[in-house]
Amino acid sequence: MKTNYVLIDFESVQPSSLDLLNHNNFKLFVFVGANQVKLPFEIADCIQRLGERAKYIKISGTGPNALDFHIAYYIGRIAAVDPAAYFHIISKDAGFDPLITHLRANKIFASRVSAISDIPLLKGSNSKNISERIELILDKLRQNKKAKPSKIETLSSTIGSLFQKQLSEKEIAGLIKELTTRGHVIISNKKISYCID
After folding, report:
1. Which of 22, 69, 111, 119 has a CA positioned 20 to 30 A from the CA of residue 94?
2. Is residue 126 over pLDDT 70?
């Protein structure tokens, strides 16, 4: 199973809870700024419960992007030993986006969201609500604009990647069927067309 590394920019985002990450396939790094002197009890308690799967990294220096550079360094280090890993940067700082584009171009799975609950795997895979999963898929397809999958196999692969290969083939097939039923996907002679606003 792919390991999901969650790297929290604690200067930008202070989550109220980390309980969603209490799964064996998640590892957590909380990057704390040099001038941050306190962590809420709830965060410290959750990190302690995660045991060896979580750690704090206190930044020793200050300056523009000091914490960001630390996050980039750790992603590089981890990717060198775990090339199949998936990195989730939790930050409101859009300055990470060029790094993520570069990582993806080099076949390193990475994304940035502004809350732990926005991690697609947690948002969709843990939800039994098909509508939530369908909305995540539609959002992904809208982002692809003209480069949407044209074959069922490619669409299946896209959905699998969106949920970081945590869904079974049967679940993916069910989601494609639901997309068809709702009129978002039209399959004709194994070719796909879309009706997505």
Report:
1. 22
2. no
CA 86, distance to chain mean position in Å, is 7
Last residue of a domain, one of 118, 142, 166: 118
Containing structural domain, residue 184: 124-194
Q: Which of 83, 118, 153 is where one domain is finished?
A: 118
pLDDT > 90: percent of the chain: 46
* Shared-domain flag, residues 101 and 14: yes
What is the pLDDT averaged over residues 89-96? 94
In tens, the pLDDT along 74-84 reads 999 999 999 98
